[in-house]
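tool_log.txt
---
The assistant was asked to compare two proteins side by side. It first ran the structure predictor on the initial sequence, then on the second. Raw inputs and outputs are pasted verbatim so the downstream comparison step can read them without reformatting.
(1)
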Amino acid sequence: MRRTFQINKNAIHCFYGLKRFNPEGLRVKIYNFHFSRTCSSSSTNVQQMKYESLPTRGLVRLSGEGVHEFVQGLMTNDINHLDNTSSLYTMFLNTKGRILYDSIIYKYNDILLVECDVNDIHNFIKHLKMYRVRRKIDIDNVSDVLTAGVVFDPNQNLAKNCDFNGTIKDLEQIVPCSTIYEHDSSFELKVKDILIDKKNIFIYRDPRLSALGVRLIHSKDLDIAPLLQSQNSGDSYTTVRYKLGVAEGIQEIPVGNSFPHEYNCDYLPEVQG
């Protein structure tokens, strides 16, 4: 069953989600029984690769003494998770608890690279600088030098491990807390094996769901697709996201309008409980 929701006045997007924000002010739960995101997100046995650049995503570099502590007080997740992993999904909220920016934070030595919507990156930097006060932290827009891309399997069967008969009571079993954060690393390792000898390409798993593939951070003038023999067929990255119920960017998550749970964030490793 496909549900269509108007995210803003200029764009209509399709999501497969349990919860969604109604622009008219009514917040409703939607029970959708063609739902795959919260079932196993592992890819098909025969994995294919497709690379897409992400021109709507920008990168902000944070560096300096106490940068982890600085970010910790501004976002929904726990920055200390980066002690055990290299990427982290989080939200930056306003004082009323509504979403300002969805972000993925990447760790590189003592530097943090924060991915956000490039169309509002200057306001995001302004937001960070407002709370910097006297801290000796550098906040720089590096989107002119670095870019983000994604490598994913365009033909994966996202619903292959779903097994429920569509009754309301089954909804309680769709998102078991013990399995929602399990991550299939096989695709990530495959990409790393191919690009292991390539310089200036930083490979990070997508911290949200393994079905969303692998994030690449690299210089803007580097052509990645030939290195991976990227496929042109199959679903686009945006289609995969929509099928998984994962929103991204200010066109899909209007600034200051909604709470995290209205965009399935309570089912993603974005909020530290």
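(2)
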Amino acid sequence: MSIIGPQVSAFDLKEAHIGMVTYSSEVTRRIPLMNSFPMAKLQERILGMPYPRGAANPHTGIMRAVREFQSLPEARKRGGVPRLLLVFTSGQYDLGDDPAEAAKFAAESDIKTCAFGVGLSINMKEVHAIANNDPDFFFMTKFNEALKEQIARVVRRMKSVPQTPMVGSEMTETMKRASEKRYYRVRVPENGLTIHLINEKGATRGFWAYTPASEQPSSALFDGVLAAGATFIPPPRTRAPSRDVTIVLESSEPDSFVRMKIVAGATTKAPAVN
């Protein structure tokens, strides 16, 4: 735990909920995903968790973590925030069902699994399977500094994964640096969408485009621009790649805080802000 505890600081608690499950033959300890711990307290709780001993049953650990995600409040689910499950393993499971099956179930539940093979004797095939064979999300690590950089890399990658909010939902984003980006993918209804963008601190703009899932809109590739206020996105033409629109928000000043609400149809009435 002394290796993992300090690394959670790679996440921003203003943007993410962090929980933890430890397991041996069964789940031994957990920190609920929905908690109100400040970063120092969260790290203290992780450092205080005893290292599990005995047989390893990662299938049980992964499935318990999936249930944590499934118990998220409905409002959190509506926001379509990407969900990430980090699995630390020797890749040598010796009890229970195949962890690859649990990882596959996680993927079917829209949870991205990232596997870290830790130690000197690692079953690489098992580590790859836990990451659902995505080469960007499995790592072999032996040292604290390597793990720190690997987790930071995963966090950066996850921030480029589009959130999938539902129409009618409202999101807030804090972007610490200028030119930092957030991504969204939304299904456009027959009567189109209105995006309400409210800059509460700093400045943020955006772009939107009907693009294939493999592409992201940018200042060089877009169908429309999002500025502060209300922007209407019409339903796509029949030649458009899909009915999904990808939205990118980009901060132009450090420490920008922006609120975005997605409303069906054409409306210029600004959403209420608490």
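---
observation on (2): The chain has seven helices and 13 strands. Residues 270-274 have pLDDT under 50 and may be disordered.
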